[in-house]
Design brief:
Strand order of the largest sheet: 1-4
Strand content: under 5%
Distance between the termini: 51 Å
Shape: globular
Structural class: mainly alpha
Radius of gyration: 22 Å
Helix content: 55-70%
Oligomer: single chain
Order of helices and strands: EHHHHHHHEEHHHEH
């Protein structure tokens, strides 16, 4: 990287026919573990951007928290599914792949095994996924609502379009769940407490995924892999992370068609 607004990437190019020539188990694991890597990168980036947004306007702050919570719930689901993928499909490949993994890749795999080897009830990612992520736990939702103090303020923002409507009351139980799981009394502290685990898992999964890519390419795409270092692309005009924002409330007035499409009948 030569300037703050540029990034160099290196291209590994291949065709579907190239991929189809690889053994099915290797091919599908490659596609699924790299897809997981994409999802984790995008969701964690959106989570971090939403968490750091500090608006003076209460409605905007609440919308940022709701955005962060959704990305957190989706992340928990993807991390869980990622571990299920490794646990179920890696054993068929490890005999040939593990000796070829980089040292960083082997360490990352060992870290994933350690992280997910304990009781699910002690794992924040599993609990977020099971309680407020991919599953709707009726009894747990009731318990979290009942445990919420009666003077907790709940608000719904009803916009003139669906696009600017946010039902914040439903988020109260999500925040209560996160506070319970992290042991924190404050919503922002709870978001911060789970950040370290998310970053740890991101690093472990992506390090392992990149190591798998290198082994797969050496085994199945050797000619294409040999050209990677010469296929450099420089991306320019990139924004700095400090200016990124994910707004929930948006002015749709510049596009009447968009407004009309979002209006209730």
């Amino acid at each position: 990287m030569s300037n703050s607004d540029t990034v160099d990437v290196f291209e590994l190019r291949y065709t579907k026919a190239d991929m189809a020539a690889a053994p099915e188990g290797e091919r599908l694991f490659y596609l699924m573990i790299t897809g997981l890597g994409n999802d984790v990168q995008i969701l964690l980036r959106q989570y971090l951007i939403a968490v750091k947004q500090k608006d003076e306007d209460e409605a905007k702050r609440n919308a940022s928290s709701a955005t962060a919570m959704l990305n957190l719930r989706l992340l928990a689901g993807r991390f869980h599914e990622g571990w299920v993928l490794v646990e179920e499909r890696w054993p068929a490949l490890e005999g040939e792949y593990e000796p070829m993994l980089s040292e960083k890749g082997r360490v990352a795999l060992a870290g994933l095994r350690t992280h997910f080897s304990g009781k699910k009830s002690d794992n924040i990612v599993f609990m977020i996924r099971n309680k407020i992520g991919f599953h709707s736990d009726y009894k747990f939702t009731k318990a979290m609502f009942d445990a919420t103090p009666d003077d907790t303020e709940m608000v719904e923002y009803i916009g003139q379009s669906f696009g600017d409507t946010l039902f914040l009351g439903s988020e109260v139980t999500h925040y209560a769940t996160l506070r319970k799981l992290t042991g924190e009394d404050d919503d922002q502290a709870a978001f911060g407490a789970v950040m370290d685990e998310l970053r740890t898992l991101q690093n472990l999964f992506l390090t392992f995924a990149n190591a798998v890519v290198a082994v797969f390419a050496r085994r199945n795409l050797p000619s294409q892999y040999s050209l990677v270092r010469t296929n450099k692309r420089t991306l320019t005009g990139l924004p700095g992370v400090e200016i990124l924002r994910i707004p929930f409330f948006i002015d749709f007035s510049s596009s009447q068609a968009a407004v009309n499409a979002l209006k209730p009948d």
